[in-house]
Write the C-alpha cells for this entry.
Amino acid sequence: MSSEMSPIDRAKYAAAVKAVDYVQDGMKVGLGTGSTAFWMIKRLAERVRDEGLRVTGVPTSSRTAALAREEGIALTTLDEAGWLDLTIDGADEVDGDLNLIKGGGAALLHEKIVATASDRMIVIADAAKQVAALGSFPLPVEVIPFGWQTTQKLVEELLEGMDVLGREVQVRQMGGMKLLTDQKNHILDLHLKHIGNPRQLAMVLNQIPGVVENGLFVDICDVLILGQADGRVTVRDLDAGAASEVAADLTEPDNIFAEGGE
Ligand SMILES: O=C[C@H](O)[C@H](O)[C@H](O)COP(=O)(O)O
C-alpha cells in the first residue's frame, strides 16, 4: 500500500480491494459514487487491464461515469443492462442491520435505483461509518425544484410525529446556490441526530408530494465490507451468516495512486 495515502484512504482502499474480489468475468456491475467508490473503480479498472476481466458498468452519477470512462471500464445504461449482478457503493452511515444513510454526494436517487436492480449490493466503507443507530449524518432527501419550500414544510411537519431527536431541515447549497443533482433536483438535509425507525421514516418521506427519494437504504445492502488503515477488512455477508475479519491483498501497481480520492 502506498505510504503517501492518508489513513482514511488506506481504510477505504482496503475495503474497495476486497469488494472487487467479488466481481467475476462477464458481470454487469453497478458503480457507486463517492470517495470510497473512487478506489473501487480504480481497482476494478486495474483488474480489467491486468487480468482482461470483462465487466460492464452502470454508473450511478455523472462523476462516476467520467472516472470509469477515463479508467477504461466499459459502460452502459441501466435500461440497456436490464438487471445487474452486483453493485458496489459507499455509504455515509451503516447500522447493525445493514441499513444505510446515503446521499452525502447527492447521488442517492440513481444509487438506490441501481442497487435495487442488482442481485447483490456490497457496501464499502471505512470502519468509522458503522454506527449503533442511524441519524448522526444528516439524511439527504431529493426533492423536485417546483414548490420545494412547500415540500420542506411538509417534511418538517412529518418529522414532528416521527421517532427522531432533531428536526432541522436545510436545503443543500453548493457555491452559494442550491445544489442540483444529476436529475436537476434539490437536496434537503434532515438533521435528525437519531432515527428510531429507519424503515418507517423511509416509507413515509416518499409519500410527500415533491419528494423524489430519500437516502435511507433499508433491506438493500447484502454485504458490508469495512476497511481499516492497516489493511484489515471485516466482511459481513447476510447470506453467509457470521462476520469474518480478513486481510485484503493490498499489492498493487504504483499507478493506482497517481491521484487521490474525491
Ligand atoms: O451520494 C453519494 C453517495 O451516497 C456516497 O456513496 C456516500 O456519500 C459515501 O461517500 P464517501 O465514500 O465519499 O464517504
